[in-house]
Fold this sequence. Notes:
With 199 residues, this protein is of the alpha+beta class.
Amino acid sequence: MTAPEQAPPRASTAPDGDAAPGAPAPAADADGDHTYEIGSPVPADGVDMWRLAVEARTLDANSRYAYVLWCRDFARTSVIARRDDGRAVGYVTGYLRPENGALLIWQVCVDPVARGAGLAGRMLDAAWDQAVAAAGVERMETTITPDNASSIRLFTKFAERHGTTIEREDLFGPDLLGDSHEPEDLYLIGPIAADKGEA
Ligand SMILES: CC(C)(COP(=O)(O)OP(=O)(O)OC[C@H]1O[C@@H](n2cnc3c(N)ncnc32)[C@H](O)[C@@H]1OP(=O)(O)O)[C@@H](O)C(=O)NCCC(=O)NCCS
């Protein structure tokens, strides 16, 4: 095990026209072996997101183009995590729901080499902080398949950290997703007061 070193700040900023006004600077995080820099993605990061999604195997991997476009248009509500050696090891994609302004977290992915060290939780917090800074969001939503225990745990812990509740509702079933896809349950988290979440 090597001593963690502080990674240099990564020049990752939202692209022109989506400059994430007020968004916090990318944060460096450590897990004992590596430091991780978590920040708002640029379009080139979409290529790494796509690779991570395909390699995860359990995610619905979208097209490479979809991730690149996502990183251009939803940079303020998404994050990418890079290890101190530059390797992309995780991402969160999210967007603000037009109907109610909630931060909808679509995908959370951590490379198997970086799992179990709390990186997903730290990325979730970073995406939340960006969305609060950019749009003052108060609620988070996500969809999870019933068999995904780690994801349910991840979002339950997020709600606990932020001193709020998490509730489950049915959302999409096989009638829409097909028989080969598990149902997607909707999880509603919040409201989260602006001064919560520093625990
Ligand atoms: C789900 C995923 C993002 C978690 O990443 P991670 O960085 O390992 O998660 P964390 O270390 O932050 O752990 C979050 C919590 O889940 C728990 N957890 C992790 N794997 C678990 C498992 N297989 N079963 C039950 N709980 C699990 C952790 O113990 C932790 O809870 P704790 O703090 O009480 O110990 C990662 O496993 C992944 O990318 N999976 C494939 C893609 C996926 O399913 N994404 C979610 C749906 S979009």
